Structures
1.
Amino acid sequence: MSDVRTQAVREPLCTETPGCAETPGGAAAEEPSRTAVAATVGTPTTVSAPTALPELVGTGLPVPLVDGRSVPYANLDLAASAPALRAVADHVAELLPYYSSVHRGAGYASQVCTSVLEGARETVARFVGARGDDVVVFTRNTTDALNLLAGAVPGATLCLDVEHHATLLAWRGTAHRVLRAPDTVDETLALLRDALTAEHTALLAITGASNVTGEILPIDEICAIAHAAGTRVVLDAAQLAPHRRVDIAASGVDYVVLSGHKLYAPYGAGALIGRRDWLDVASPYLAGGGAVRSVGVEDRTAEVSWAPAPHRHEAGTPNVLGAAAIAAACRALDPVIDEVAPAHERALLARLVDGLSGIAGVRPLRIWADAPDRVAVASFTVTDVPAGLVAAVLSAEHGIGVRDGRFCAHPLLARLAGGADAVRVSLGLNTTADDVDRLVAAVRAIATAGPEWDYREVDGRWTPTPDPRDLDPLRLGAVVGPGGAACGH
Ligand SMILES: Cc1ncc(COP(=O)(O)O)c(C=O)c1O
């Protein structure tokens, strides 16, 4: 087995791209860097070398185990929040000396920051294939973007019950319907067609990739169905954008929402990208400075001329570092998002699914077994072992980070797991075959022999008892109490 995480430039794990040194079933050879590949094998200049996967900050981080050992962290929880791309962290560090007010200052640094923010809109728009007249509004995250859009929809909304809570709940206050998704993709498309034809709906909200199963619906077909019924589509690309190209113009989708922290740009920003008309006339998402053209006070009542989108919905000082981080992530992902990253992640997902399928008691969760594609996210339950305990053992005894719970998708988990919690493994750019093999071996040990350490449940979280690990490596005095941070996730 190989562990190539210490490489500064990582080669993708794939079987199709010539020049890949690592295959799902085999050991990795000594992997030369990208430039070395071309030099040592004499690749003709007309044949491009495989594009390297961009590096992430924190790859190979040593983490403590309860037995006193330390191992490289296998972060298999990228669907929750992904570490920064090195290019993103570097860009933010480069920008920091210029940090200053945006849209509010004549000073040089202010003008640089204003230009960075407006340039970030263009970069994000290009990355997602936006139409020329689409608008990019920077938000805090996907949830924020959906709530913003909810205030702009001139009519009823619809979604499936498989969605993340962000997509299920943002529409409260609009006439909102939730449909139970059938078991096949074809039936799901037919259901959407019937529902949208039967009742006029302004907006269909649909996930780009399920945060529970990674499954992807055919978004082009869904857009065609919706548009035929006069319905717009918002694509929740929180899980899709880090793994597959999102192309607004080609797919016909009307709005896209995404989160920087899932796109390897964890600096507190997200985005809503899409058609301008609804956003230009909607009530401002927040009222305040930056969202207005002018304000007067007559008879003690403020008279306001609101700016058009995007500024209309970005009142207050914008998060220029967050926006710049997303733009830097778009630039770094652009060369790999069409082929290299998907090939790498597909090979790893196949290895994961294959490995887990051989373990008695492990039951994978699927919505549509016939989904045409799937990002590298897999959830499962283990017979007689609570999901929270599985996750605690993976962390405490194996140095592996996964997510447990109902993944902010309670209705879906009610269907797929009878309301029980499950374990979710999610892979990405810096995941290696070794990470996947460690996970599979650890789950096998848990399912067959159980934990080696003692654990107890405190406030709904499974905790190693005792837990000798240093949980305050930054020496901030911050203590995660027994049970950690349990909440309704
Ligand atoms: C599919 C999906 N949509 C929306 C969200 C909400 O994202 P955020 O918490 O960044 O707002 C998530 C988060 O996990 C998600 O997976």
2.
Amino acid sequence: MSSDSIRGRADNRRTENERGGSVNRSVRESAGNDSSNERDETGTHSGPLGEAAEPLLRVKDLVKYYPTERKGFLGAQRGAIKAVDGVSFDLHRGETLGLVGETGCGKSTIARTLMRLEEPTSGAAYFKGRDLFTLSKASVQALRREIQMVFQDPFASLNPRMEVGQIVAEPWVVHPGIVPKEEQRGRVSALLERVGLLATDANRYPHEFSGGQRQRIGIARALALQPDLIICDEPVSALDVSVQAQVINLLAELQAELGLSYIFIAHDLAVVRQISNRVAVMHLGRIVEVGGEDEIYARPTHPYTQALLSAAPAPNPVGRKERKRIVLEGELPSPVNPPSGCTFRTRCWKAESICSQDRPQLIDRFDHGHPSACHFAELQILPAAGMA
Ligand SMILES: Nc1ncnc2c1ncn2[C@@H]1O[C@H](COP(=O)(O)OP(=O)(O)OP(=O)(O)O)[C@@H](O)[C@H]1O
Ligand code: SF4
Ligand SMILES: [Mg+2]
């Protein structure tokens, strides 16, 4: 797909399956490629543009447990689902951090706690220096101007009884005084055209649109308040592959144009790669490896990342030929009763006794590497295209 194939203009609107193709990587690269960034010993980076700035968002030891109660012979037994169990990361302006991992590993819980839709059990998250978790209700409301979300299911997240124009303008009702009433119609038209829809689509209802178009409406709504950060929770998982590329291209273009930062959540490593500067691989509530897109896909060090990559489709014949699929045996352990030490040990072919005793820290074990939480982390060199 050429770089101008999805411009988000009215004259450029296409149906979902009209054109497929790969994501315009040059757009992402123009917004900054992680490999050129400075990195400190914890794997946190300066911004994608190379500036050693304060991060836009700093998450420190985020924990979210959901209490459980089970009735048995011995009475009620209390426990907890350890949905997020000590997650830390930085996000810089203009950067996209991909969060990837199997179902139930805590990706959406991180998103919901950062949005203050759920209260964290402990930890801190500093957005432009302010601790999100100590903000008052009124301040949280104001914060929603600056942090927006795009959801997986574009149909469920759009009110079927509202016209698209009302949906896109709704944030201005919740946050009055931002866009004067008389300007709203024109602003809605501009937003719809910017995401590749028609201004006249404002008068239609969500059910009249395809999945990809509905996701564009969701993106237009997220842009209405001109946020700094958009948390995209599986924004393309429900879409056809060809449409996924179009929506990801749109997000990348908007990022380059508006300087947006994204947390981009998906369970598919190939999808996350298309837009992320850095990728954090999660397993059972923890980040087990984090690094630049090139590092994670070409030099993974954690066995779990290596297994996930071995199962992902290789993009070229060399990768396909050299692929050695790592089949993980055993069930994904429960977040109610996670294994001691390394939570991956029950499925890890490299596990030794220390793995059940000591929780491996997320640290950079290689001079030129990136942090991973494995006692026996090893660089695996994959072909340049990765995903082998
Ligand atoms: N409100 C809740 N109450 C109890 N447990 C919850 C709640 N929300 C999530 N969980 C549990 O927390 C864990 C993490 O869930 P989460 O939705 O964050 O995972 P995820 O990585 O987003 O998964 P998926 O890829 O399926 O969306 C899961 O075990 C889930 O069942
Ligand atoms: S710490 Fe041990 S069990 Fe965990 S990933 Fe490394 S080798 Fe496997
Ligand atoms: Mg989720």
